[in-house]
Amino acid sequence: MLAVRRSGPLRGVCRVLGDKSVSHRALLFGALSDGVVDIAGLGQGGDNLSTARALQALGVGIQLDGERASVAGVGLRGLRAAARPLDCGNSGTSIRLLTGLLAGQPFETVLEGDSSLARRPMRRLAEPLRLMGATIEGRVDPARSSDVFPPLRVRGGALRGITYALPVASAQLKSALVLAGLQAAGRTVITEPAQSRDHTERMLRFLGAPVAAEPQANRIVVDPDGWDGRLRALPITVPGDFSSATFLMVAALIVPGSDVVIENVGTNPTRTGALDVLRAMGGDIEVTPAGEAMGEPVARIRVRATRLRGTRVDGTLALRSIDEIPALAIAAAAADGATVFADLEELRVKESDRIRALARELGRAGVAVTEQRDGLAITGGAGRDVRGGTVEPEGDHRIAMSGAILGLLSDNETRVEAREIATSFPTFASTLRALGAAL
Question: Active-site residues: which are they?
Answer without folding.
Answer: 323
